[in-house]
Amino acid sequence: MHSLDVERPDGPILKYYAYVATQAAWFIVPIWTLFLLEQGLSYTQLAILNGVWWTATVLGEVPTGYVGDRIGRRNSLLLGSLTSVVAVLAFGQMASFWGILGVYVVWGVGTTFRSGADSAWLYDTLAADTDEEAFTRIKGRGSSIRLAVMAGSAVVGGYLATVDMYAPFVATAAVVAVGATVTLTMPKNRAYREECRGAPADTPADCPDADAFAPRDAIPVIRETLAAPPLRSFVVAVGAFYAIAWSAGMYTQPIAEDVAFRLGMDEAQMTTTLGWLYAGFSAVSAVVTFYADRLEEAVGAQVWVRVAPALLGLAFLVASLVPVLAVPAFFLMRALLNATDVLKDRYLNDRTESLGRATVLSAASMLFGLARVPFRLLSGVVGDLTTPLTAVGIVGGLLLVGATLVVLRYGIDAPAGTPREERACRAC
Fold it and tell me: What range does the domain containing 60 cover?
C-alpha cells in the first residue's frame, strides 16, 4: 500500500499544505475592525455583523456539509474559495452598514463549504493511504503553516493599508484565487473517484458507497454522533469556549490602537504596528499548533477544553484591571483557541464514520457558530455602554464561570475507551 510519510510529506499532503497556505493569506486582518469603524459603525453594529455572519454559517453548515459529502470534499473546497474571492473584493468597496451586511451573509454561507470539508478530506486521505493516527500531526503542521502565512500577510497588509486601504483586499482575493486552482490538483477521496462512481453493484470493494448517503440520512447521523457521549459533553465545552472567548476578539484592534496612540504613534505607524502585532499572534499560535500532537498526548482533548477556558478567563480578568496586560492576554487567547481547533478536529474525526463525516463536522461547526451569536451581540452592547477593557473583563468572568459549570456537569477527564469502542457504544 502506498504510504504518506509524515516527516517527508507525499504529494497529496504537500498540496494540502499549499491549499492551507493560500487560504491563510488574509492581508486585511490587521485593519478589518478599524476599516469597519472608519465607515461609522458602532461596536453594536460590529456585533450585529458578526452575529449575522455566524447565523449565515449556522444556516449553511449542514446543507453545505451534505453537499460536500455528495459532490466531494475537493469540489466543496473549490466552491468555498471562489465565494471568498468574490466576497472579499466586494467587502472592500462597501461603505454602508447594509451593504457590508449583505456581503457578510454571502461570505458566511460560502465559508461553510470549507469548514468541514478540509478536515474530512485530510482524514479520509490519510485513512485510505496510511493511518489516520497521523491526522493530528499533519493537521497541526498545516495549522502552523496557516498561522505563519497569516503572520507574514498581516505585516504586509499593514504596510499595504498605508498606501491604499483597498490594496489589502485585492491582495487577499488574488492569493485565495490561487488556492482555488490548488484544489483542482488535490486527489479525490475514494468515494468520489471515477472508478467509485458507478452503480453500487459495480462499485470496487475498497470504494465507499457515497450514493448510499441520502438527505434523509443526514439528521440521524448527526443525532447519533453528536448527541451521544462522549461527543455531547465535548461539543458543549468547545462551543462555550469558542462563543465566549471570540466575543472579545473585536476589541483587539481598538485596545491596541489606544496603546499605540498613548505611545505617541501617528496613524501610519499605528497601522503598520497592528500588522506586526497580528504577525506575533500568528507566530505564537503556530508554535503551539506545531506541537499539537504532543499536547494531545500530554493533556488530551477532553481535559484541554476544560482547562484552557479557565486560563484565558483569568488572563482577561487580570487584563481588565491592569490594561498593559491586555495585549499579552490576546496573545494567549489566539494560542489557546488555535490549539483547540486542531485537537477538536482530531477528536471529532476519530469518533465519526467516514460516510457522512463532512456532514457531522459541519453540524458541529453549526452548533459552535450558533453559540457565538448571542455572546457577540452582548459583547458589542457592553462595549458601547462601557469600554472595551470592561467588556474584556466581563468575558473573562464568563469564561471562568463556563469552565466551572462544564467541569461540574461533565467532570474533568475523558471517558475510558478507544474512539472505535466509543462509536460502537453510542447506544449504551
Answer: 11-202+211-424
Residue 315's nearest CA partner among 326, 301, 307 is 326
DSSP 403-420: HHHHHHHH-SSPPSS-HH
How many whole angstroms separate alpha carbon 371 and alpha carbon 54?
A: 9
Instruction: Rounding to the nearest 10 degrees, give the CA dihedral for residues 288, 289, 294, 298.
Output: 70
Least confident of 45-59, 237-251, 328-342: 45-59
Q: Which helix (H) or strand (E) holds 391?
A: helix 388-410
- Look at residues 358, 14, 28 and name the one whose alpha carbon lies nearest to residue 182: 14
Mutual orientation of helices 97-115 and 73-91 as an angle, nearest 10°? 160
Classify residue 1: in a domain, yes or no. Answer: no
Task: Enumerate residues 6+ apart whose C-beta is below 8 A from 256.
Answer: 273, 274, 277, 327, 330
Distance separating alpha carbons of residues 68 and 70, to the nearest angstrom: 5
Its pTM stands at 0.67
C-alpha 323/C-alpha 331 separation (Å) is 14
Residue 6 lies in a domain: no
Distance CA 396, CA 407 (A): 17
CATH code assigned at 49: 1.20.1250.20
Name the 3-class secondary structure at 103: helix
Closest C-alpha to 283, from 161, 160, 154: 154
4 within domain boundaries: no
Q: Which residues contact 386 (CB under 8 A, 6 or more apart)?
A: none
Q: What is the pLDDT of residues 316-369, one digit of tens each?
A: 999 999 888 999 999 999 999 988 988 887 888 777 766 566 667 777 877 787
Asked whether the beta carbons of 25 and 81 are under 8 A apart, the reply is: no
How many structural domains comprise the chain?
Answer: 1
Rounded Cα gap, residues 68 and 75, in angstroms: 7
DSSP codes of every residue in 283-325: HHHHHHHHTHHHHHHHT-HHHHHHHHHHHHHHHHHHHHHSGGG
pLDDT digits (tens, 9 = 90+) for 274-327: 888 888 888 888 888 888 878 888 888 888 988 999 999 999 999 999 888 999
Q: How far apart are CA 267 and CA 121, in angstroms?
A: 43
- Classify residue 219: in a domain, yes or no: yes
pLDDT confidence of residue 357: 67
Q: Coil, strand or helix: which one is 336?
A: helix
CA distance 332 to 408: 25
